[in-house]
Amino acid sequence: MRPAGRGELESLYFDYPEYPFRAPAELGGASPRHPVIIAGAGPVGLTAALALAQLGVASVVVDRKNTVNDGSRAICISRYSFETLQQLGVVARFEAKGLGWTSGRCYFRDQLIYQFSMPHSADERFLPMYNLQQQYIEQYLIDAAADCPGLIDIRWLSEVTAVTQDEAGVELGIATPQGNYPLRGQYLLAADGARSEVRNLLGLRLNGRNLPGNYVIADIRMEHDFPTERRSFFESSANPEATILIHRQPDNIWRVDWQLPAGADPEEAVAENTVRDRVAAILAMIGHRGDWELEWWSIYTANTLCLDDYRHGRVLFIGDSGHIVPIFGVRGLNNGIADAANAAWKLAYTLQHGAAEGLLDSFTPERRGATLDVFRNAGKSSRFMTPPTRGYSLMRKAVLELALSEKFVRPFADPRQVQPWIYDDSPLTSTASQGEVFPAGPPPGAPLQNTRLGERDFLLDYIGPGFTLLYFAGNADLDAAAANLLPTLRKVDPRLRVLVVGEAGSDPIAGDESIADPGRHLADCYGAGPGTLYLVRPDRHIAGRWRHLEESTVTAALHRALGDPHERDA
Amino acid sequence: MKETLEFAELEQVYDLLAEAIDEAGPEQEALFLAKLAMLLAQQIPDVDRIREAVATALRP
Predict the structure, then answer these.
(1) DSSP string computed for A178-234
(2) Does the residue A236 lie in any domain?
(3) Percent of chain A whose predicted confidence (pLDDT) is above 90
(4) Is residue A390 within 8 angstroms of chain B, CB to CB?
(5) Do B10 and A409 touch (CB under 8 A)?
(6) Which residues of chain A have a CB within 8 Å of the CB of B17?
(7) Interval A366-386: pLDDT, tens
């Protein structure tokens, strides 16, 4: 919502682009079958389109709007999501504009009771979290998509009105200002958000729980001197009954969230006067004396809802279309981006290499597993932020009062920010064989560590768009054995990139690229000895790792990571 | 025996107590908490420590 007298897209700081409708070939009678159709040009759909394009797969993206999101909505992008954007080669604008942050403060009755810091080290390229309005996120991705001509075709003002599928593919009904047409594709990614039309048209329902409690979120513009941190306030003088959150965004925009007391009328709560009064009280409480302007506001409820299966034949649900999660811990956008990266490479290997069905089937256990983990964590946060019963209210009050003097209860106020999900029990992951002890490094299923190799040089910059084999050079025998393995692996994944880590100038096996590691920093971070191997998936999660090379094991792991655990040939 | 609970254990206790308070119901919750305090006190055989905890819990 916007203040009276301002249109939906009249922002104080953001010029909404207007993307043109262009009549597609289908309106002239053509009926090509596109490899992938993506419903929804939001951050999740566009990430999927870019990830597919990087693997050479063309997609058509349809969206009913002709511009970006009307309000700032999602604002926190995690380090893990930034690394996905780095892999896609588009992170620079996000990094330049976003406000990075590491820590937060919690107040109870206007007294500071707890400060938290998210894990960070000098080895990381990115900070744990960046704040950036969703409009910018979308705009940067749309601009990046425009740099992929022939691979990404975004069709604005194109609404999905029907979805059917058969053995050959999917067919969508598309309504446009110049008429309707059927859009044919081999696969469909539903990235059309919480109110997904694709989900409704397929007659699928989200299951789960609506948690009690409504929040109003408002963006305001003000000159306010406070670092980029997450501030939370319990029982503050400005809103004694309920919790307040404050985040800084670029362009002097501040996000203020406040909980509505039980029984409050949601309509009254979003009336402009109510919003202005509430914001004024909150700003007085934090000591802001200067001017401020109201930009945009909205209301939301915390839900834990998801589909039972994220794959329905040739349709995969990515982002909010498949799962709605509470905002506490910033998991909506970030998990959507992870869904997109996960689905994209699986579709590419299915379309281009005829990968086994097991590959697409793994999408649900891997990503729904992530959703259920979100529910567990966000459930804890939500039970604290919006206590569902008298028992939980009493316990929260007890813990917060104790927190004034007792350190041991203070971590209850921690927001439990999103952590990347580890696919350790995925059907695609080869877990450690017996006797393989790694002193360090990402375990099977975890994402690669983006280890610093130099001032502006990070491991992720070397990872290929397909599978990557990270090989830590050993002695002549080990190197010869590794070299023997490559032709077999390249038969399974012709895109395989081999990265050889060794001494400067040495070229022990003919890899695609070598990384000098004179101080053994990378080897130490990866717990690697001579001959250690890591097999890395296109979405940079570890498919398997070995300290001792066994040809058949590595080949089997690659087959397994492509959804074919029984394949042991070659 | 260890001296204090790990935070993850403390979280379990938080949920356990919240749900037990709901189960006791508003009329019985004070009685339930008083009984619980007696049971736990019996496992800390040190009146001074209990006196200290009572004083901390009384602070607003």
Answers:
(1) TEEEEEEEEEEEE---TT-HHHHHTT---EEEEEEEEEEEEEEE------S-EEEEE
(2) no
(3) 74
(4) yes
(5) yes
(6) 391, 395
(7) 999 998 888 887 777 778 887
Calculate the average pLDDT of chain A: 91
User: Within this chain, do residues A67 and A157 fall inside the same structural domain, yes or no?
Assistant: yes
Chain A residues with CB under 8 Å of B14 CB are 395, 399, 412
- Measure B2 CA to nearest chain A CA, in Å: 15
| Cβ atoms of A221 and A292 closer than 8 Å | yes
DSSP for residue A176 = E
- The interface pTM score, or ipTM, of the predicted complex is 0.96
Segment B8-58, tens digit of pLDDT: 899 999 999 999 999 999 999 999 999 999 999 999 989 999 999 999 999
Is the domain of A343 the same as that of A459? no
The answer on A365 and A472 residing in a single domain is: no
> In this structure, are A30 and A158 located in the same domain?
yes
Tokens of A171: 């067919």
Q: Which domain does A165 fall in, by range? A: 25-99+131-207+304-377
User: How many domains is chain A built from?
Assistant: 2
